[in-house]
Amino acid sequence: IATIESAQQNYDAALAILEDVVEANPQNTLALFQLGYIHNSLLGNPSQAISYLQNCVDYNPNSVGCFYLLGRAQYRLEQYQEAALSLERTMELGTRDPYHYYWAGWSQINIGNCSRAMAYLDPGYQIALEGSDSEIVAAFETVMPECRSSFTPETVDESDIEIPEATPDDVATPSPDDA
Q1: What does the alpha-carbon distance between residue 113 and residue 71 come to, in Å, rounded to a whole number?
Q2: Which residues contact 97 (CB under 8 A, 6 or more apart)?
Q3: How does DSSP classify residue 131?
Q4: Each residue of 80-98: b (16+ CB within 10 Å) or e?
Q5: Low-confidence ranges of the chain (pLDDT < 70)
Q6: Do 50 and 77 meet the contact criterion of CB atoms below 8 Å apart?
Q7: Is pTM, for the whole model, over 0.70?
Q8: Which CA distances in Å does 142 have to 25, 39, 118?
Q9: Could you give the count of Cα atoms lying within 13 Å of 33 in the half-sphere of its Cβ?
């Protein structure tokens, strides 16, 4: 029901339902993920999302989706070091999502680690080329040259790069097996 409410942009109703679920079962990582997703991605409130997503990864340290959203929320709050760690965990868990690779690379750029960024950007770009999402391919093509030349974090003006925002389809909702 919360998913339907959210799809109809009835976010308050969706949040209330999900809060009730978490109150009844604080370890329900699917509900924690959805609460984090609504707050971070739909309402633009990453500070509210952080606690739900941190609980999600605490209860399920193998959830790619929860680590990805946690990293994105941390990034939005300019907690770049924490974001880099969370997004690196998505790589360790074996994601094949080009958005995950992109943001893992971009978070490394923001902490001045271009060599580590390229370890994510190169394979992520190849994965993106295999797909049909021209927006993420273009984002890789824009940022990768910055790391291949004389890079310092100050040489990349993030406002000049159209960085794709993951959509619900890009962020795999954890299945009951990994949530």
Answers
A1: 17
A2: 64, 68, 90, 127, 170, 172
A3: S
A4: bebbbbbbbbbbebebebb
A5: 2, 5, 8, 10, 149-179
A6: yes
A7: yes
A8: 44, 29, 13
A9: 24
